[in-house]
Fold this protein.
Amino acid sequence: MKVSFAPLCPAVDGATVAPFTVDFDVARVNGQRIERIPLAAYRVSVSLVEADGTVRALTCSRDGGRATNETSAEVYWEGAYDFNSQRTDPKVYVRD
């Protein structure tokens, strides 16, 4: 499985962030975290690489309870509850 990140803006420190992709083994992907991502907003897309090499886009959303036909989701960090100095980790839910 490939998770692709396309930056929507510069990082919070003003640095330019290049698009990047993270590969996952689908046998161990449940609840997997991606760490050390530059703090910026991204459009995330997820694709499955089949055994024969075929690449299939998967649907994804930030809301795990909502069905969607979207093949990408915007990801950004938000303030945690009433504490603007703390951030919650963004999550993306993927369906096949």
About this structure: Residues 2-95 form one domain. The chain has a mean pLDDT of 84. Strands lie at 2-7, 20-23, 42-49, 55-61, 72-75, 78-80, 83-88, 93-95. Residues 52 and 72 are 24 Å apart (CA to CA).
